[in-house]
Amino acid sequence: MKKLLQKLYTYEELFIGYALVLIATVATIQVFMRYTLGIAYDWVDECSRYMCILITFVGAGVCARYGSHFCMDALLQYVPNRFKHLLKMLANLVSTLTLVVVCYYAWIQIEKLHRFGATTPSLGIPMYVPYLPLGIFTAVIAIQFFVKTVIHVNGFVQNTPYQNDQGVH
């Protein structure tokens, strides 16, 4: 199971990199064609926008896994080891619960868009499709924060030394 997850994590990170390269390449071609040939495609802007949203949510999941999100940890320097775990546990639990609420409402919105049947202006795909990353990846990020919560609960209960998880790969 651990090998499968590691492979999935690698694919996530590769997807982000290749998607950014693809957006940059297509945007460069679009600019070249617009200013040299006078041809512009509307779908490029729309597709780039939706890809950036997808990259943002996939990247947020990666950041949650590595503990790379912005956090205020000045208080952690001044509390005993055991309470560091308690504070991180509470912060991760609040993040998990917040993301569960966002995920719930995202799926309600996706279902409404699916039922309504609208399509995107240029690409002509169903409007709920660009919203799917919001529903899927808020769930993934919530799971990542919940895993961090469990790790810090164990650290608190067992009184293990606190290790900062930021930037750990």
TrEMBL record:
The keyword Cell membrane applies. Keywords: Cell inner membrane, Cell membrane, Membrane, Transmembrane, Transmembrane helix, Transport. It holds the Pfam family DctQ. It is found in: Cell inner membrane. GO terms for cellular component: plasma membrane. Residues 24-149 form the Tripartite ATP-independent periplasmic transporters DctQ component domain. The chain crosses the membrane at residues 12-33, 48-68, 89-108, 128-147. Its main location: membrane. InterPro entries: DctQ, TRAP_DctQ. Belongs to the TRAP transporter small permease family. Coiled coil: none annotated. It is a multi-pass membrane protein. GO terms for molecular function: transmembrane transporter activity. One of its GO terms (biological process) is C4-dicarboxylate transport. This is TRAP-type C4-dicarboxylate transport system, small permease component.
